[in-house]
Amino acid sequence: MGVNLDKPHLWKADVAASVDMYNEWFMEFAPVAFRETRIAVTKDVEQTLERTGNLANITAGVLREHPEVLSTLRMSTCPPLAVDRLIGLSGVSPSLVRSMEKGRLPTRLKSSALVAELEKLVDIIERMADPDVFSWLDSESEPTEADVYRAATIVADRLCGSVANPIIRNAQEKRQLRVIGAWLDSRGYSFTPTGSGLSFDKLPAGSYAFHMNVPVKQGEEKTVKLPVDVVVAAPTMVSGEIPLLIEAKSAGDFTNVNKRRKEEATKMAQLAQTYGENVKFVLFLCGYFDSGYLGYEAAEGIDWIWEHRIDDLEKLCL
After folding, report:
1. CA angle at 50 for the pair 48 and 51, rounded to the nearest 5°
2. Rounded CA gap, 148 and 237, in Å?
3. 222-233 sheet: strands from edge to edge
4. Is 1 part of a structural domain of the chain?
5. CA dist., res. 224 & res. 199, Å (int)
6. CB 231, CB 243: distance < 8 Å
7. Are 130 and 215 in a shared domain?
8. What is the pLDDT confidence band of residue 84, given thresholds at 50, 70 and 90?
9. Same domain, 121 and 187
10. Residue 118 binned pLDDT confidence (cut-offs 50, 70, 90)
């Protein structure tokens, strides 16, 4: 007997309650999460401006030594440049730009070729630097401290705006894990820190851990690591039994969850192939999950716990 997957008569009311819960959190805490990220990003932008002489001295050497500054420089142009637009304008190798966006340089590119490619990027950034944000570039005057800070905050806003959804998702995930942890702590569970060296199936009974890798089969011979948000070993768990695996999910609209609903089904299939059909894998939901999404997961044999009814975890013998 399932917790929620076999109770479609409850889904409509639960969806409404879940949406209300997400919206309440978003209105109160999402601006805080965004502002905190913007403060940190502003400091990074200021550091980039310092390294480039407030954009007056962008060089291939700077990009080579600090490839991570490229994302800031893209947001310093008018208009701000998406990765693909920068690649198209500069004619630079896509792999080089995408590597720099991750804070590194490709290892196979020869030094002379690398410098030539970086100089192409410099040329585009210099030609398209936003004159309204970096007004001192046209006047050749020295910017004041206030000028630099103002420019840094504008660029930081652009950077944060381009990754607003991940910022909110990360804040929600951290909050959901805190909620699950507090629920387990109140029932006498002990927390096992990530990096303890224990594999997911060796957690002591009555303990839990976050962000553990679960080995699963991929094909006949290959094994891959499947990241799982929460692993819970019930106090009654016996040797050889697989712990409960929980995937924390939140969503701010109905469209994206229906685009991504196959991800959970794929995880479930891999887990079942590796550990058998009785593997315990559930979702922890908060936000916009409609009956279409729920019906799809139920058909795949995936159950869920609503955050607004977290005590349903007790039905999983926790």
Report:
1. 65
2. 59
3. 190-191, 207-218, 222-233, 244-251, 281-287, 303-306
4. no
5. 14
6. yes
7. no
8. very high
9. no
10. very high
Secondary structure (H, E, C), 140-161: CCCCCHHHHHHHHHHHHHHHHH
3-class SS of residue 236: coil
Shared domain check, 210 and 228: yes
Report strand pairing: 222-233 vs 244-251: antiparallel
* 261 close to 35: Cβ distance less than 8 angstroms: no
Which amino acid makes up residue 209? A
Are 116 and 45 members of one domain?
yes
Which of 103, 137, 163 marks a domain boundary? 163
Alpha-carbon span 78 to 89, nearest angstrom: 13
My answer on whether 24 and 125 are in the same domain is no
The CATH number of whichever domain residue 309 belongs to comes to 3.40.1350.10
221, with CB counted inside 10 A (0-12, 13-18, 19+), is exposed
Q: What is the pLDDT of residues 46-55, one digit of tens each?
A: 999 999 999 9
Q: How many CB atoms lie within 10 A of CB 248?
A: 22
DSSP codes joined into one string, 37-49: HHHHHHHHHHHHH
Residues 180 and 217 in one domain: yes
- How many CB atoms are located within 10 Å of the residue 44 CB? 17
Among residues 231, 236, 242, 180, which one has the least CA distance to residue 206?
236
Domain region containing 180: 8-30+165-316
- At a CB cut-off of 8 Å and minimum separation 6, what does 69 contact? 48, 51, 52, 62, 63
